[in-house]
Amino acid sequence: MITTFEMNNERKTVNPNGKLNAHSPVVEVFAAMTKGESLDRFGKKADEAVNYIKNLGERAASGDFNAVSELNEIRRFTIQPLLMEELRLLSVFGAYENVGFDDTIEREVYAHVGEKSREQANNGDVVFPMIQQERYSVPTFTVSGGYQVDYRRVQLGDMQKENEGIAQVRIDILNRAKAAIIDKVYNAIYNATGVKYAVQAAGLTKSAVDAVLANVRRIGRPSVIGDYALLSEFTPWAGYVGSINNNTITNISEAAMNELQQNGVLGMYNGSVLVDIENPYDYSKLDAAGTNFATMLPMGLAFVVPAGGRSPIKTWTRGGLTTFSGNDVKTGKVMSRFDLEVACDVAKGHEFEIGVLKDTNLG
Known about the structure:
alpha+beta; five-stranded mixed β-sheet; 32% helix; 31% strand
């Protein structure tokens, strides 16, 4: 689920004299221009910043890669604050932490080992379990986004395409980070040895799903986080089925019907919260049948996560965005690429604290 641009002549960003930061006037004016906002609040600094940005666009259009790199640095400061705020949404699966560029990502987990506590015998010793600590490093992976820039537009102060490109970078990185995390979490839980609460079948059944929910509920009140297609399978299970004179009667409460009418899926099922995770199309791929676009995340996968901060999942981002410019190998066009280091881990020995539901019919 990792996407990068294949480029040659790769060049890092340029921050002249270290004068650029997220609160630099030129960065704030650039961000306002891309959003189509008024520049009146910047006063005299607005004209200076606009002229500076146009000059960078003119130089970049003429092949000055120092200007391209400096514009990338401005873009980075524009994209990063909102992206990092959105990445905090990854905490829906568990804990989230951003660490520095030079920090090593490590996980510390605890496990009970040895003989369990038991009743004391007459004149005997009491035995207790021991708590064993384990520390291990977690590798990162890189998610990328980027776009081709028309620097002639920047030269003229036309920032519409900049706005579209910046928005696409932010969306791509966020969605691809979620996709990679979901893939890693699923594999860690489903392939775990020992106790695990996972159902994978060609069509989920009420009894199998109820068993997973019941097991996870003993850890904490569960939330089921997944795609709309899978959560829709809960709808017929929310009612009750009976028979009168050998006729099958199926009913569902008025409250559930109203909820379905408003949201399309149930919000609650047997005390479990159903969370519909956003899952847009990936316009660069087709589905297995080739008749529709593929989705960014699996449609047939959901996690059963206990409440109370007991999730064994933790995600990290290291540092912030890094950005490069170069020529696309296929087209020769100048591309701007933005990378983010992400890490994800399911605490070893604690995989049973998260349930997995997978309907292979949904892909």
